[in-house]
Fold this sequence. Notes:
Chain A is of the alpha/beta class.
Amino acid sequence: MKKALLVLSDGMVFEGKSFGADGETKGEVVFNTSMTGYQEILTDPSYKGQIVTMTYTQMGNYGVNEEDDESAGGPKVEGFVAKECLDYPSNRRSISSLNGYLEKHGVVAIQGIDTRALTRHIRNFGARMGIISTEDLIPESLYEKVRRHPGIGGVDLVRLVTTDKEYKWTERIWRWEYDSSPGKVPVLKKVVVYDFGVKFNILRNLADAGFDITVVPAETPAEAVLEMNPDGIVLSNGPGDPEAVVYGIENVKKLLGRRPVFGICLGHQILGLALGGKTYKLKFGHHGGNHPVMDLLTEKVGITSQNHNYCVDIGSLGTQVRLTHKNLYDGTEEGMEHVELPVFSVQHHPEAGPGPNDSMHLFKRFREMIESNR
Amino acid sequence: MPKRDDLKKILLIGSGPIVIGQACEFDYSGAQACKALREEGYEVVLVNSNPATIMTDPEMADITYIEPLTTGIIELIIERERPDALLPTMGGQTALNLTVELAEAGILERYGVELIGAKLHAIKKAEDRELFKDAMARIGLDVPRSSAVKRIKEGLDVVGYVGFPAILRPAFTLGGTGGAVAYNLEEYRELLENALKLSPVSQVLVEESVLGWKEYELEVMRDGNDNVVIICSIENFDPMGIHTGDSITVAPAQTLSDKEYQRMRDASIAVIREIGVDTGGSNIQFALNPEDGKMVIIEMNPRVSRSSALASKATGFPIAKIAAKLAVGLNLNEIPNDITRETPASFEPAIDYVVTKIPRFAFEKFPEADPTLTTQMKSVGEVMSIGRTFKESLQKALRSLEADSYGLEEKIAEPDVIKEKLKTPNSERIWYIAQAFREGLRVEEVHEITRIDPWFLNNIREIVELENEIRCSQPATPAPPLLYKAKSWGFSDRRIAGLTGLKEADIRGTRKKLGMRANG
């Protein structure tokens, strides 16, 4: 195995072994605490611009399969960091090793470093830019390269991951193939999904909730969406700084009050900005599958899947929205609903993939909101 | 919910004597429960027949009875103490069985003692095979298919539904005489005929075989507001057919993708709700067919168990303590997490290491016992280790056994003996697996014989391969990069010394000079 280096913009250097593809890559280094689901994480478009470190140490155990991708065309991360990648997958659904998959898709990855030390560093000092290289093995030189990188704040990364053209979606959520069929859901409501970097599991969950789904590019004008006459609009998850998605914010402003809206993650942030609120960046973000979130109405706590660096300052929205969900780890705001309009959104990922299915009922809630709205 | 103020005095039943299959883990849970309940201001009455426990130390409970664990004695204690509630889930199967007897004899009702944690109907639903089967069917989960058969003709219908291989268990025979596995119809007809003859009541239970399937466990907690969290997933190194207490087990689960893990998580939540454990911890065991992904529920313990003690140590989440607090009405989000102190207990531990448990056997003390591992537990204890990787964790656990082993030492034996040691589960199998790789067996072959998941076997194969590299460096200390790799894979100094022909002190000295020590 070839040597590889990871250098952070503050000068921290980690030496390890290369896996995946050879090369050099830059991105904001974040850590994810999920113990399963590396394939979903790698292919989650919200990680565009970022290098993901897994805190769990054993990667590649169950290989990579055909069904668990969260986007088309392979990984979206800029790079991948693991304690150990094991090259002998053992799972009946596996069609490739993780190493082979990363290599095929040109993802530069490093293993054999002290990922615990890296994680602690990010937690103490915040997420920062990093560079992984298998070609240039001179720390000083890598440090210069990463220091010159302007970072990903204020950059519109959505353009890099959104679909080129509109498409329809019908695939349902994953089930064991011999399970008795879940049965057909009557498809009565039409939904348009704004693709800011949508995860397939959002679309799969909408299909399970009985929606006729059309996915549109992020820059589709509000007028064009209204012309399609949907019953509801979903604002998807996506990468980066919400303030940079100016066109998204402008379009959502025009849609509010015209159709019921459901926002997820970046979609929630864009909604917050469209309503005139503010967003702020977290120190090291929330990336993992074990965050407790309380539904303030029922006081029920769900364990949620999370992946975000920015938050909506719901207080900045005044009395037009109600806070509906709260993160019990750090008290951050996790969801809101408009007091008058049929509009609600959550910061976490009810679609899971990876992570717990505790919040999947939100897709049904969206459908019910649409039904009661007519 | 705030904690209940209608309860003042709570009775806790201990687990009695330490026996094989039920050891000090229930002393740990009982002691934790005493502390937790008193911390919340309740008066605790403890009864246990075993004075050689921590929980019976004078300062643990408010009032301690060291008396035989029988319904008659407990009734006298209840009559005298008049507790408001009984917490039955901390003293293992002994306490749970006794509670069922007390409830069914009407004693709890007579003295107005409320069962907290798990109610009678939940305990019975989890413990009674038929009730459990029906409950699982209601929530669409599979259990191993089975049916009682009295005639050959009936048996032929039943096997069509059970499938092959089918296990035959004649009813009321001593020590399971006549039990057999049939792999095809011809065998089945013959074995069934024999089994029916052997059973004094001519009845045979025909059951779907899950031997060799992968075994998993999930530790689940539920509070009074119906919030459920999974504390830990455990994957057994040894496949189905060996008692969990005698299996090498690993946390978290290693070979499940997220979709498969979430399927198991969802099933666990459905099980704890359907069985109706109001508050507290439960342990749910699954078998998974690696060929087609079929998942069946093996059993559910509606109480703190051996595995919850392991899961508590593996994750830092004190299951017994939290379960006691949930039983008096607190919710998970109202209890602080012991480790962070800032966040609540309503979360799922995410760990950045691998935990390995290896059972400790003492067959030398029981010369007449059959050392073959079966579904009846034979280990007398266990060790648990934490390592950043499975390899490190495994090798650390081996060293902790105090069985004069410092790693995967050689087992010099004939090929036939090695294969036999792989085939019939025994307490030394892990060392024979390593030996099999030294003798040139391939992972596929060892898997074929043992049904142990290839992921675990490949890890052991790599340990054996690294041994060879270390051996090649003799008679010198391995070069620093190799030494570092060996240490991070959990090789002991002593084992490295053995492989290089040096002394343990030499390896340690070299390491010290290099400043090479454990740091994660």
